[in-house]
Amino acid sequence: MNAVDARAELRQQIFSLLTEVAGGVLENQTIEADTEFPETGMSSIEYLALIEKIETKLDVFIDLEENEDLTTVDKFCDYLLEQVPTA
């Protein structure tokens, strides 16, 4: 799988998890990969639930003190792709 495909798949996974935790917030709006989560009305509890789901599904640890800027799907993709060693 090339880097473009890996990023697209990761982005889709994050969108899926985002819909799970903030489905009510997202029902009436379109969220782009670069939409800031605070602009969507997502609560901090939903954000933390998203972090937990990402950590569980992708078997990673996200230190929020060091990564406060993870506020969009694309920023999560960038961060997570940096954490995964390339084959």
What do you see in this structure?
With 87 residues, the chain is mainly α. It has four helices and no strands. The protein has helices at residues 3-26, 37-40, 44-58, 73-83. Helix 1 (3-26) packs antiparallel against helix 3. The chain is globular and about 35 Å long. The protein starts with a helix and ends with a helix. The relative contact order is 0.18. The mean pLDDT is 85. Residues 9-84 form the Carrier domain.
Detail the topology: elements first, then pairings.
Elements: H1 3-26, H2 37-40, H3 44-58, H4 73-83
Helix pairs in contact: 1-3, 1-4
InterPro entries: ACP-like_sf, PP-bd_ACP
Domain Carrier: 9-84
Organism: Amycolatopsis speibonae
Describe what is shown at a glance.
The chain is mainly alpha-helical and 87 residues long.
Which key features would you list for this structure?
87 residues, mainly alpha
Number of strands: 0
End-to-end span in angstroms? 9 Å
Overall structural class, as computed from helix and strand content, comes to mainly alpha
Rg result? 13 Å
Mean pLDDT equals 85
How would a crystallographer describe the biggest sheet?
none
Q: How helical, in percent, are the residues?
A: 55-70%
